[in-house]
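INFO  loader      accepted 1 record
INFO  loader      residues=322
INFO  predictor   begin
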Amino acid sequence: MLVPVLLFIVGLLCLIKGGDWFVDGATDIARRFHLPELLIGATVVSIGTTLPEVMVSTTSALGGHGEIAYGNAIGSVICNTALIAAITIAVRPGPVDRKALRTPVIFFFTAALFYAGVAYTTGYFSRFTGIVLLALFVAYMILTVRQMTRKDPAAPAEEEAQEEVPPLGKSLLSLVVGAALIAVGADLLVDNGTLIAQALGVPESVIALTFVALGTSLPELVTAITSLAKGHGALSLGNVIGANLFNLVLVSGVSVTLAPFSIPQGSMIAGRNASLVMDFPVMFAVMLLLTVPSLMKGKLYRAQGIALLAIYAAFCVLQFTM
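INFO  predictor   done
INFO  writer      dumping tokens
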């Protein structure tokens, strides 16, 4: 047991340092190009922090463990929203850029409705489903890159002169090295944590929805905490929204395209698959609670964060008691 503990500590150190460099690189890029931090968080940062989910889900699907790929995607969305975003909001609520938030939110709910529709009607995620999800990912990236490349005529020229921004190469290096450290750290934590959970006799689907989802969401958690500490709350929120979208269109898209699978047959609630009765409704509920007030009022409230944390706690308790 000594080796797993040591690897766990190494993984934690990688996450902490990687998160520090990753956030620095992302915010420097946003400042250089006068881009909203929320937009950078929903694209560049989200892709980097979603890498662990891509690796875990794809490997699981190819290895015949579709239930882990499926549970990791849904569980990560719930974890990102009801734990990571909730912590960010509870600690530092504030205004949000509604315009920058609108596109990732629309794409998320489009992908989520399609994903849920397939789950409820056929219960089987075919290769065609994966291709549609990947097409949504490509469409989102094209649209967002076009938004990012539009120059803001209102950006004051003297602001760039006053604010010293590191060279672009240094910012990109910080971003890439930070993402690599985060991915390695998350992988170490998930591998060792999953071994412990399996030794305790926890079902694979429950491990995916809770422990693996939390482990692969550690990059988002590290980014959120680091962003808060550095005063970049918008970057954290954008990262969570973008990561949730990528969990469906990129993580699920890649794993389903490479190795189609059915919804895992695990616990039952009222004679129906527990995933259809609880997991999907919880996913939609927490995302609506996070995004609707933000889009309507243009700000986040501490009560949202507290409510989301309560939902996540209840969700985890139910998963382990069914």
